Records
---
Amino acid sequence: MFKGVLIEKDEASDSKSYNVSVKSLDDSVLMDGDTVINVAYSTLNYKDALAITGKSPVVRKFPMVPGIDLVGTVESCSSGKFNVGDQVVLNGFGVGEVHCGGLAQKAKLNSDWLISLPKGLSAKQAMAVGTAGYTAMLCVIALEKHGVTPDMGEILVTGANGGVGSYAIAILAKLGYQVVASTGRVDEAQYLKGLGASDVIERNTLSEPGRPLAKERWAGVIDSVGSHTLVNACASTKYGGIVAACGLAQGMDLPGTVAPFILRGVTLAGIDSVMRPTKDRLDAWQRIAETLGAETFDGVAKEIILDDVIDTANQLIEGKVQGRVIVDLS
């Protein structure tokens, strides 16, 4: 037996009741996979919070153990890709949505979904990074590949108090970029400036309907919000700039025009972290290990235990959680 968060739904019931609890589980819950992992840490991401609260139809199979991240030790691996005792990391691949995930003390996964714990990171630090930090680095790499350099001007980071936003600020600042953070919690500006933001702006300046084209300001943008915020970010990006879009906290809609793209040559780059090829994952994780230090991991993440997950998920949905949440499964 092992402990985990389980989401259950009675499809036969007229009410289709949705129930989430922390309970003792057995191996019958685990799905197909060639690698069994004893999970040390997981995380609580926005997508996990949506799954746990049922605010969005993230979960597509029931019962489901949520958790799109995990780090742990290999108990067995029939594919031969990993040895017993190896430490491995998982992000994405539909885990926590269609395949039981990281918010339990044991997981059974496909070895092709896993990478070795990056050198220079502890297991706990890897989950302080998690999908949020890994996605932030993918966004930064997209800006770099587009040719955006620190001397080209300000970089906007939206959803700045969230996990992706926090890591995007920290990474960009370490690389010498001038970062402007957009947030709905300007009273927490000191936290963002501590990560490296040079300025903090109120999210309402971007989250309301705006003009097709606004004054050019941003050399690049990392957006985890979507909807009007993403549209306004595109509208105020400099000629030839790039907007890396990786989230939908405000919404999935894109209520804008093609004006920034055809009149200013702005590039809108979609950043997917779920099905990313292994090489991209390894590159992003190694860059994180090389760029950030322990002080960033400690400053961005807080730690909870499994019994706190459901309450914390509700707080995350309400916008009351700052930075990253690590879940200790030991």
---
Amino acid sequence: MPNRQDAYYMHNLGCAKNTVDARSMIVLLERHGLHGVGDPAQASVLIVNTCGFIDSARRESLGALRDLAAIKTPDQYLIAAGCLSQRYGADLVHQVPELDGVIGTRRWMDIVDLVRRLRARKHPEPIYHLPDEAQTVGTDERGVSRVAVQGASAYLKIADGCRRPCAFCAIPAIKGTAISRPPDRIVHEARLLRDQGVQEVILIAQDTTDYGHDLGIKDGLAALLEQLVAAVPDMPWIRIMYAYPGYVTERLIDVMASHEQIVPYLDIPLQHAHRDALLRMRRPANVEWVRDTIAAMRTAMPDLAIRTTFIVGYPGETDEEFETLMQFVEDMQFDRVGCFTYSYEPGTPSADLPDQVGEAVMLHRHHVLMSTQQPISLARNQAFVGRTLDVLVEGHAEAVDGDDRPTGEIISLARSYRDAPEIDGYVLVEGELPTGAFVPVRITGAMVYDLLAVPDGQRSG
């Protein structure tokens, strides 16, 4: 059995951006002689990379920390990393007294130093690596690639932090202002991913469309994409996540439409569609810009898939504002929609707004919005029946019948260009196809979130 003193256990929570941070810490730990294990009992260092974005995420993170605290032995060190640590700092120890170390999002690169200090300490007081709010992540990456590979796909972080003033969001307080990574570093990492056989690079940041602003690069995301397609012309898919309304430029649209490997997919969280609600949110309130820009994108890319998210129950949201949002959803015919009920976030400007909406009303509006979107998503999926699409195979599962009973038949779980990992649907293909490969399939059926298919040239069973 490996020596427990040389082992760490990492439990990662939250979004893809957190996944990249967790992977970066893992690289540093392993570079300094530690190895990861899947059983916390076999590790001397226990790390929870927390999420603190909304209340449900905070509860999940605290639960994970407390679960490990309950089984921790005196010769183990429990560390809280990530967003919850950055936001609550030393106060986190009051909620989980067994914590030995707390490290914030802006100091992930100090994880090895924290472990060393814990092992060398003579007294059991917790050790903190927490910069104040004036400090940012900066560019000290210790030579670590800011990527997270998952199967044949990889998240590539192009920036960290956010300078947007959204009233409901604690991310600027957690992450600091936006810091773009040097384009040559991003291009280098894309080449390394290509050489490793990665088939899809997913560009992520708190706001990808703000990339390069701090570097003085005009239309930075479009410029970066041009460099990437030139550097890795054999990377089949490049996907953009987390765009910001008002910053999808004509040049960005042109670059996306001009390069086949940039998939015609955009994730652009809009949050609402009524001007007054958007103004209270401190979000871009020009809804006509949204309509015009999406129309321009669909003209340039007729097969464009758009994912967005909305918040219902934001303080002061009236019936009229909600009805405007519902009409907008019906008008725009988005492919994918996520909906969140407003989460009260202490310390954000929205926490002080009057007219907080009751939970029952929020839940009802959530139900109404998603019930309205589901037939739209179904219709968008049905439009692909009969077409042939290239899909990226991610794995396999046993098929079930209408009563959820296993049939003994194997199906392949794949994604089309319309499906981002983890948040969108699957293309369910008959038969066992090679994992990590692109396969042309013919779409034979559609559901609200998923498509059904057979390998191209094969008749449906």
---
Amino acid sequence: MKHKKWLTTVASSVVAVSLLAGCGSNNNNSNNASPSASPSASASASAGGKQFENTELNVAVFQGGYGREYWDTIAEDFMKDYPGTKINITASPKIAELVRPKIVAGNPPDFMYIAGSDNLPIIDGLIKDKALTDLSDVFNSPSEEGGAPLKDRILPGVLESRSSSPYGDGKVFLAPYNYGVMGLWYNKTLFDTKGISVPKTWDEFLALTATAKDNGRELFTYQGLYPGYLEEMVVPSIYSVGGQEALDQYFNFDPEFWKSDTFKQVWGVLEKVATEDNALMKGTIALNHTQAQTAFMQGKAMFIPNGTWFEDEMKDAPREEGFQFGFLGAPAFTADKPAMAMTNVEQMVIPAKAKNPELAKEFLKYLYSDKSVKLNAEKSKAVLAVKGAPDIAKEFISESTYNVYKAVDEGIVTVNGAFKSVAKGSKYNPSDEIYKPISSIMNKQLTVAEYGDKLFKIYTNIQKELKENGAE
């Protein structure tokens, strides 16, 4: 068995366009606490010999495609194992709107899980303001099961990446939660029954336009109104062509990236999709994520980018007969290089001004126990970023999703990264600046050369802002 290679970048901030948790939920935003747990804040509680003077913990979590049942249940379990403690859960698809006033007032929740693209800027702000608690001691201490340090349970490279250690000093300020694997998906039944070979290179991918037409579909679609999904092709492809150096240029706002051969090759694939006959599914640009994904599942396109939440998110969507999810990742540019996949790790934090950081750290550590990993899989259909989690979660996730995670465990080359923080008060959102104009490439209103010139100027301006702010 090959050892998995987890590639990290020197980029900081949160993972851009974090769609890992899928779309929002229709559950309410109410708090949850055990009716039997009502200790005073000054009382002490103990478990395993540990004493906590403050026994009440306020937890704020994003309520998206994973729902909130896991958080309610794990809170109940924690309160049973730590008698006398009280955990209050606040959950919402727009959790940032609820916690921002508390953060501004200097009274943040003790523990936060923030995800969803609309919510993520609040984490970026906390990073910029250095307003997060150092969690290194949690990961250096033994795990819930005892023995080796907790950090040894986390997937390789995650704690060392800038998405966990944003200041590059080796200190962990953002704890990893669920992770997803992203790339291109296809209908496995179609490929198997028609004897279609899964493309290993982008040339082989583009050559399937004729095959797609013969099977009554077009080659490719994507979530047109949310072009950020295209990063699942772009980021692995940048690494495939230019390696870590190119990724560093991309995520750290080096203007020269937009004049490089790497840029020309990667965006050249997108331009070919936009211009070649039967390559881009008609109407793609106007579709939201569920519309594009449904069209793909109904057999209107051969490939679509997405992540391991895809199958569960679309479990009730109509599909062509016999449809099976197949995962490709991102093809390479030459046959001698492996296919790759992008990974995305969600994050949990303890604000620096939390009233109860010690109990929050104990709760965080509890979340990495085998019991919690299994509960998370059962309730959220998700996989924590810990070694062996896919096997713990196997009985609760689909076979195709499990196979994707196991492919990562067994050696598929993966890449992750995030943009360096822009200057405070900047008008630029790097992800939007890069991905939104791709729609203009797809509808032939913008050439790749014109796009590259535009991004060169934007990166130059971002660097100028950073220099003026003393944060170059």
---
Amino acid sequence: MISENAAHWIWLTQALGYNNHKLFKLYELYDDISEFIKGGEREWKYCGILNMQDITKLKQTDDVITKLILERCEFFDYSVITIDDSSYPDKLRHIYAPPAVLYLEGQISALDMPLTVGVVGTRTASSYGTTNSYKFGYALSKSGVATVSGGALGVDCACHRGSLAANGVTICVRGCGINHPYLVENTKMRQAITRQGAVISEYPPDEAPKPYHFPARNRIIAGLCDGLLVIEAGEKSGSLITVNLALEMGKEIFALLGNNSPRNKGSNERIKEGTAIPVTDFMDILAVFNNSFPAEEEVSFDAINFADMEGIPVKHRRKDKASEKTTGIGKPQKKKTAETKVEKPKKAKPVHKENPDLTEVQKKVYDYISDVPSNIDVIASDLHIPVFKVLSIITQLEMKGLITALNGRNYILSSEE
């Protein structure tokens, strides 16, 4: 299925960017986006939404790429759902900067399940993390609950595979195009998801992954779910961006109880501060939703079969260099000589980008942050902005790739790639 106005919205995303709140404002203002397109430069100037920089981008954007994208979608039989389409998920219309276009392979009905639980966590998951993620995916699916995750290694794919084993509905939200081969380890899993669930993205089918795509992708995961479960999230985990977004949206947050490993620091902190409900079993989640979705058959969390657990890929940590030297693990180290020693180029200091598309208060926070770490509490105090509002702004700046999170809720400017 390809929406009637697909070409218009694709062209707008190519000109103004995918994660742009102005696209939603255009949707609210025009009953039919073709009126805006046909109005030309005069309409663009007087609609009250775009600045001159935006209008210049529109004038410079050819529709050739739009036609190529539509041809690719037709060739692969992908659905293109636009924000003004009746099949667009209503949950997403209420988030900040909802995607104007969704590219989908699989079942559109997967986006309209009565109850959806998101599952996020580390790519470098332990066996405890992958086992529990698989079990939650399986048990929730058996209870008629759809799951949503990001299709990454570790926790994400364990959840998807658990849902697939239960013949349930699961949604994979990608940080690249749905046709891009990124993470070949999960290719077969994504193919299996399309039979009952859906693989979706706001990026055109062949779009390559970029670092800032993933924080932006997380707002879609948060938007689609009614509740969000975080499993093994460290202090700097990208999963916590999804948690912050879900909190802003008023979603229920759950966290798997873990030990005091650094891998669990972020999720455990959410439990301690009271923003996440601690869980050890899928019934802990269903209870919050008044057990509205009882399983068709009795599901024992401890009796779930892990037939394909061995095949769940995780992202491997780098080996400790000290242990390599003492145990002999890994390749022998070459002795550095004057001839082989190479000076590493010094990284340029990160600087503020010129004319970023920000609101006045977002720009105020962005201008405050520098190449020296700034703590969120200090930012709030110095700028006289409530902490909860700073947290929201910080999340938006991360999604735009303008700042980078450090330990202890500190932030610095992002370096140029």
